[in-house]
UniProtKB/TrEMBL annotation, chain A:
PANTHER family xrefs: 2-OXOGLUTARATE OXIDOREDUCTASE SUBUNIT KORA, PYRUVATE-FLAVODOXIN OXIDOREDUCTASE-RELATED
Pfam family of the protein (one): POR_N
Domain annotation Pyruvate flavodoxin/ferredoxin oxidoreductase pyrimidine binding: ranges: 279-494
Keywords, alphabetical: Oxidoreductase
Classification via NCBIfam families: OAFO_sf (TIGR03710)
Residues of the Pyruvate:ferredoxin oxidoreductase core domain: 535-604
Organism name: Streptomyces triculaminicus
Protein name: 2-oxoacid:acceptor oxidoreductase subunit alpha
Top-level division of the source organism's lineage: Bacteria
InterPro entries: 2-oxoacid/accept_OxRdtase_asu, PFOR_II, Pyruvate:ferred/Flavod_OxRd, Pyrv/ketoisovalerate_OxRed_cat, Pyrv_Fd/Flavodoxin_OxRdtase_N, Pyrv_flavodox_OxRed_cen, THDP-binding, Transketo_C/PFOR_II
Length: 637, 356
């Protein structure tokens, strides 16, 4: 599929017709960049929302520093939001922007390396004065020294124009200046024919308590639009048609990974007919799930902001003992703290979801950047043999289904389950076909209600560790059930009775049984996509690399190459056919945002020669980069 | 000190009642008790098992949660629901259970190492939140299960395996700590005084919110006689200050000692009561809104000799209960927005339709 290559974004020199020219594009990548305080994330979100409601396919990549307000005008303080939208289905936020909006010299400097020659750059000239430029090391103005000659630069005094547009609103200069992001949004909305009603409604709602500010922002937004319409510098506007054929019929909305994951948890709770209980401690980039679930108490959702990570999972485990669908949400450092409690959950064999929104590590690492380096921590990061199933979503919207799948496994098998998302999925967004709630799986469980074992003397008793012969799950007997009073704990238990047992043979049996239970979890076979049926190279991904891997596969196939693709949702246990799939290909490429953790697992398990391709830059792979890797694998070595 | 049944059950109003009259043996599990012979834990276990029938609660709605340590084996011996969890985390686990299941009576059993060292954070936050939990802190001033290291309540200079030249760190006074952590109910009792222990349990059970009961417990293997000053009849008369709400705080062989406020500093002190100063003797008010006097009382005890150790309920005040507030918010949300509609939630406000 060639559509990853822009067809008309750049090219023909603009003529100067009296009426403004409108060109059609099949896709565009825009990056808004500014200071942390410039409201770039909000601007990006609004443009995304306009684009979603217009019906384009889209994918976003917010990128921001960990500091709430890094020093103004500095390179570390630059915050950006990249949006890729198209008239066809797309998979990634795009490799390189066609348009860069730079609100200050730092934003230009931090992003220019990613911008290909010929692209459009809209700069806020008001900020290109001596001090802000000196702060980031510009001796001469890049707007004047010819260094941007290869680009199509639109110098716009965004600040001045915004202040001028708002002069009748009775705002201080500082207050008025704050709306310059809305001016920029208005201008871009004009350039790309975005619908504007939703943004105006949004602003009026957001500033409902400050109507003066609301109207000022709407005015700045309209002024930006009108500026595009009237000024000669912007001679061309662009249309990107809705991606009608890319989407199956249905109702769509735009959704981020953390939001989809939150909704998945609420949906799982409803489908299981169990109250949802979240025990959590704030941590980037997982906190949004705590925030979101806290809004939905009318669904019977209890959210408990604990004193620390351990108490977060502790409370969740207590709620699980009481019969709730229990969840704890965190990121890598939090998982480290929760390890002992996860081990307890393994021993207690209670359902529990551990949501890890992975970020750059080790230690505090890169809190706002993405990584996939917690796979081995999820797999092995506990004392003793403590197997935990692992489920990983592949796209932001897929976080919804993955959450439901993780809940299914936890509830059926009475086990803690890892849901491994990451910062890229958490904050990125894409269109999502809103599911019909009647189509959601039935997750209801049977609590134990009576004795399940007969002693030699005929007495009926309840044995908390007498297992279901098929799933090896133990009964879930919740407090309040008469006659089933029992005690469970982290000390090794006797098979069946659950009483404390230090018997060597029993321990060996219990360790192997817990492992067998997880190994026996029913997961679907991994599907291989190989249109030619003749590929000798397989690319295997997991988690959020799905987008860039699939985009890369499309590129190389468009060039006539043969490559097979498979993607893992279940990392523990692996799909039953995975060994056979790996054996089918001469070469298996595994791209990961770590130093080869899945590759390590695959080599150990299947004795297969894996070509591990890794990146730990805190940023997702680019499609072009992976396409090159695939071509190399196909043709060399 | 006899306001039992009826009103006491207010704290447990959502917990189903037992259908039949219960006896102590209903609360004994079939597990063999494995504490060292002579351990103070036996007496506490017997007192708790003996007291439970009085509550008249369906025993399937009672849960004991513990951490790690000798005392934390307690749940195995109670024929209720129970969880023997991990070191220090019982208050957190119990918080999740109690806040999601208000129909349960949830008890935490912990020790001085479990509650005050590794689990100190969870303890203070449970107290601050006022979750409906009854925390029984067995304080033997030593680490028993790991064979005799000093604990966070050991007296300074304690010679143990890990401190052959004497421990260096000052101990916690658990009652002072709890009062400082905004506890709404704080009491202290002694393992060997079954009657006093039972009465304190009674008041703790009746308290809505987190109740912390420190129980001085003898470890006859690693710290034998740690509380002898409070147990020996003769010595106890001088050492123990028995607190009763509404009564003057007096003690001594002849009841000759009393607690008065030092006019110069505002602090409390022990004096010999005379006809002149008898009217100055402080009347214990466990329900005082301010924790100041309760805290001052807790500081009368000498951490080394245990002289002037107050026992009984130091503080018992009504404060909003976390789990009740949490449920109230759920109800308020339903009242305000209606019961959650999943389809509407998933669709949100900003959708578009693709037709085939």
């Amino acid at each position: 599929m060639t559509s990853q290559v822009s067809s008309t974004a750049e090219g023909a020199a603009p003529a100067d017709p009296p009426a403004k020219e409108v060109r059609r594009l099949d896709r565009v990548i825009i990056r808004f960049a500014g200071d942390s305080g410039d409201g770039m994330q909000l601007t990006g979100d609004r443009f995304t929302s306009e684009t979603a409601s217009f019906g384009n396919d889209l994918s976003t990549l917010p990128n921001f520093p960990a500091e709430i307000r890094a020093p103004a005008g500095t390179l570390p303080g630059v915050s950006s939001f990249q949006l890729h939208f198209a008239d066809h289905d797309i998979l990634t936020p795009g490799d390189a922007p066609n348009v860069l909006v730079a609100m200050n010299p730092a934003a230009l400097k931090a992003n220019i390396a990613d911008v290909p020659h010929g692209a459009e750059i809209i700069v806020n000239t008001d900020e290109f004065t001596k001090r802000p430029m000196a702060k980031v090391g510009y001796d001469a103005s890049p707007l004047e020294d010819g260094s941007l000659d290869a680009y199509n630069v639109h110098p716009v005094p965004l600040t001045t124009l915004t202040i001028e547009a708002l002069k009748d609103y009775g705002l201080s200069r500082k207050e008025a200046e704050r709306s310059k992001n809305m001016f920029a949004l208005g201008l871009l909305s004009w350039m790309y024919h975005r619908p504007t009603e939703s943004t105006e409604a949004f602003l009026r709602k957001k500033f409902a308590k400050k109507p003066q500010i609301a109207e000022a922002n709407v005015a700045a937004f309209r002024a930006g639009w009108n500026f595009g319409e009237t000024t000669e510098d912007f001679a061309v506007s662009y249309e990107v048609a809705p991606a009608t054929s890319a989407f199956p019929p249905g109702t769509y909305r735009n959704i981020s990974g953390n939001l989809a994951l939150s909704y998945g948890l609420i949906a799982a709770s409803r489908q299981a007919d169990l109250p949802l209980y979240l025990g959590s401690y704030p941590i980037t980039p997982a906190s949004d799930i705590l925030h979101e679930l806290s809004k939905h108490k009318n669904f019977g959702v209890r959210t408990f902001q604990a004193e620390d990570e351990i108490a977060g999972i502790g409370a969740a485990l207590g709620a699980a003992f009481g019969g709730a669908l229990a969840v704890t949400t965190t990121s890598g450092p939090g998982v480290a703290l929760k390890s002992e409690a996860i081990g307890l959950a393994v021993s207690l064999e209670l359902p529990l979801l551990i949501v890890d929104i992975q970020r750059g590590g080790p230690s505090t690492g890169l809190p706002t950047k993405t990584e996939q380096a917690d796979l081995l921590q999820a797999m092995y990061g506990r004392n003793g043999e403590a197997p935990v199933p692992i489920v990983a979503p592949r796209t932001p919207a897929d976080c919804f289904d993955a959450a439901i799948d993780a809940a299914r496994i936890a509830l059926i098998y009475r086990t803690p389950v890892f849901l491994l998302s990451d910062g890229y999925l958490a904050n990125g967004s894409e269109p999502w076909r809103v599911p019909d709630t009647d189509e959601l799986p039935d997750l209801r469980v049977q609590f134990a209600s009576g004795p399940n074992h007969e002693l030699a003397d005929g007495t009926e008793v309840f044995w908390p560790y007498k297992r279901d012969p098929h799933t090896l799950a133990r009964p879930w007997a919740v407090p309040g059930t008469p006659g089933l009073e029992h005690r469970i704990g982290g000390i090794e238990k006797q098979d069946g009775t659950g009483n404390i047992s230090y018997d060597p043979a029993n321990h060996d049996f219990m360790v192997r049984t817990r492992q067998a239970k997880v190994d026996g979890i029913a997961v679907p076979d991994v599907e291989v996509d190989d249109p030619s049926g003749e590929a000798r190279t397989l690319v295997l991904g997991w988690g959020s690399t799905y987008g860039p891997v699939t985009a890369a596969v499309r590129r190389v196939r468009a060039e006539g190459e043969r490559v097979a693709q498979a993607h893992l949702r279940h990392l523990n246990p692996f799909p039953g056919n995975l060994g056979e799939v790996l054996a089918r290909y001469d070469k298996v490429v595994v791209p990961e945002m770590n130093l080869g953790q899945l590759a390590t697992l695959l080599r150990a398990r299947y004795l297969t020669d894996i070509r591990s391709y890794t990146q730990v830059s805190g940023m997702p792979f680019k499609a072009e980069q992976l396409a090159t890797v695939l071509k190399e694998a196909i043709h060399h070595g | 000190m006899a306001e039992t049944t009826g009103s006491m059950i207010e704290a447990l109003s959502l917990v189903p009642k037992a259908e039949a009259v219960q006896s102590m043996k209903d609360f004994k599990s079939d597990q063999e008790v494995r504490w060292c012979p002579g351990c103070g834990d036996y007496a506490i276990l017997a007192a708790v098992q003996g007291f439970m029938p009085e509550l008249g609660l369906a025993k399937e709605n009672i849960v004991f949660v513990s951490g790690i340590g000798c005392s934390s084996r307690f749940p195995y011996y109670m024929n209720t629901y129970g969880m023997h969890s991990i070191h220090g985390r019982a208050p957190a686990i119990a918080t999740g259970l109690a806040s999601s299941r208000r129909d349960l009576s949830v008890w935490v059993v912990t020790g001085d190492g479990d509650a005050l060292s590794i689990g100190g954070n969870h303890l203070i936050h449970a107290l601050r939140r006022n979750v409906n939990l009854k925390i029984l802190l067995f304080n033997n001033r030593i680490y028993g299960l790991t064979k005799g290291q000093y604990s966070p309540t050991s007296e300074v200079g304690k010679i143990t395996k890990s401190t052959p030249m004497g421990s260096l760190d000052a101990p916690f006074n658990p009652v002072s700590l709890a009062i400082g952590a905004e506890a709404s109910f704080v009491a202290r009792t002694v393992d060997s005084d079954r009657k006093h222990l039972t009465e304190v349990l009674r008041q703790a059970a009746a308290h809505p919110g987190t109740a912390l009961v420190e129980i001085y417990q003898n470890c006859n293997i690693f710290n034998d006689g740690a509380f002898e000053a409070l147990k020996d009849k003769q010595r106890a008369q001088e050492a123990v200050i028995r607190l009763e709400h509404g009564q003057p705080i007096r003690f001594g062989a002849e009841n000759e000692k009393g607690v008065v406020r030092d006019r110069a500093t505002g602090d409390l002190k022990v004096v010999t009561v005379t006809p002149e100063n008898a009217s100055d003797v402080l009347v214990h008010d466990a329900h005082a809104a301010s924790p100041t006097t309760a805290f001052a009382l807790s500081r009368l005890a000498d951490p080394d000799t245990l002289h002037h150790t107050p026992i009984g309920v130091l503080r018992s005040v009504d404060r909003p209960v976390y789990d009740t507030l949490m449920s109230d918010q759920l109800e308020a949300a339903i009242e305000e927005k209606g019961k959650g509609d999943l389809a509407a939630l998933l669709a949100g406000n900003d959708t578009w339709t693709v037709v085939g």
